[in-house]
């Protein structure tokens, strides 16, 4: 399915659902049948979940968004100068709020260029793309609605001398080491020699700061976490009752990661009709819904290098809470994170 606006400067391609474990709910069956129980974080993002996440990004406790934004205000013109005019491919574009700083830097070059946002939320991607087309006169947009992995292998042919994949917000922290390794391989495989990768990562910091960011006083993160159950109900004809659960986030100092859980506070049974699945939950049972790993900047540079992505420059804030890395494709060496 393809959407094109009247001026033909915005195209949105809706990628077909791919058959497999992640599309037919087998990942839910596997996760809820395991010990401990786990659910993939992609199920956060129905329309309600996407809106709640945008709200989280503006919470006073949630430092990543404002910290990365401050870095981008300083770094964006320099990034554009280092890369020259490029196609920007953004993984998980959302409303493209922070990305506007980067987009403005490329728009100031006053040359035709292209932005390729990728997101699982078709409504949000379409709305933000139509708004961006009004704001940037030199910009054309080719959006892809799908998962990162799916969209990376459906990128349109390159129209400019270079392409830069942009992965902001420290979303990488939600990936396990194996998933991170796989994503970097995929990024390297779709880029050509001389292309770029811009990566935002959340750095290790005091536990009190981290746990406050994921247990906000307004309870928005709790709503976001609990909304996953409602989303599963809609997708798979389920009967999760969110009132039987509460949100909890802790920092695992050994693994350097936030772990977000749904804790059961009442013994009950849940059915997901479309998956032919029934699960019994006891009081104090829990489901892991997300990890958010916190990184060491130098180790990340080494990990990128091992995947053929050579660091050109890093930026960080005065507290060293967040890092932004610009890397360029070259031949891989081999290493692990």
The N- to C-terminal Cα distance equals: 38 Å
The class by helix and strand makeup works out as alpha/beta
Query: Main sheet: which strands, in order across?
Result: 1-2-6-5-4-7-8-15-14
* Uncertain stretches of 5 or more adjacent residues: 18-22
> What percentage of the residues does DSSP assign to strands (E)?
25-35%
Q: What is the CATH H-level superfamily of the largest domain?
A: Vaccinia Virus protein VP39
How is the CATH topology of the largest domain named? Rossmann fold
| Computed CA radius of gyration, to the nearest angstrom | 20 Å
Secondary structure tally: strands: 15
Summed over residues and divided by their number, the pLDDT gives a mean of 92
What is the domain tally? 2
Secondary structure: helix percent: 25-40%
The CATH class of the largest domain, by name, is: Alpha Beta
The major beta sheet can be summarized as: 9 strands, mixed
Count the helices. How many?
10
CATH architecture of the largest domain: 3-Layer(aba) Sandwich
Please tell me what the overall shape is: globular
How are helices and strands ordered from N to C? EEHEHHEHEHEHEHEHHEEEEEHEE
